[in-house]
Amino acid sequence: MFIPLHDGEPMRNLRRPYVTYGVIGLCVLLYVAPQLGLLPPVEPYLAAGFGIIPKVVLGDAYLPADLPQAPAWLTPATSLFLHGNLAHLIGNMLFLWVFADNVEDMMGHARFLVFFIACGVLAAFVHALTHLGSEQPLIGASGAISGIIAAYLMLFPRVRVWGLILKFVPIAVPAWLAIGAWIAVQVLQGLWGDQSVVAWFAHLGGLAAGITLAPFLLAPGVSIRERWRR
Hints:
Number of strands: 3
Number of domains: 1
Largest sheet: 3 strands, antiparallel
Strand order of the largest sheet: 1-2-3
Structural class: mainly alpha
Order of helices and strands: EHHHHHHHEEHHH
Shape: globular
Helix content: 55-70%
CATH superfamily: Rhomboid-like
Radius of gyration: 17 Å
CATH class: Mainly Alpha
C-alpha cells in the first residue's frame, strides 16, 4: 500500500486552497466534537442520522423520528464529512492534503467545491445502488477523494509524489505510477474484496465521477491535453 506524504507541484493560480483547508477543518471538527461531548457519538448516532443508508435513500426503510438526522436526500452529501475512527479520518485527510490543493488550484475555489461534493454524492449513490438492501450507514470522504485523485492523475501525471510503501519505506514515484497502482487496487477489491469492510464501489464511483466531471470544471485556460504534453 502506498501512503502519500507530499508532492512536488506548487500552487500556481491561487494563493491558498481555502476549500481544501475548510473541508479538512470541518471533517476534523466533526470527529473531535463528539469526543468532547459537544455532539452525539459518530457511531451509531451521527452515522445513522447523517450517513447514507441505501435502504433509507433508495428503499422503504425509515429512521426513528427522535434520532437527529438530515433528510434522506441530503445524506449523500452530509456523509462526506463524518469519519468513524481516527485511522479513517487521518487516511482521508492525508490524501486530501497531498492531492486536493493542486486540483483546487486548477479549478478555482467554487468549481472545486462543486466537484468535491458532486464526486462524493455520485460515489455514495453508486454504493447505494450496489447495496440496495443494506441498512448499514456509509460515512467518509473517500468517494469524493477518489474523484480528486482521478482529476490529479489527469492534470499532473508526471509530478513526483513522495510517500511510504509497506507503511515505513520512503519512496518517490511519478503520480501516474502511484495513482495507477492505487486505482488497480480499487478495481481488484471492488471485484473480489470484502464489501462489508470498505465501500470499494464508492471509490470506483468517485473515480468515474472525477474522470467525467473534471474536464468540465477546470478554470478557463486550463487544458488536460496541454497538461499531458508537459
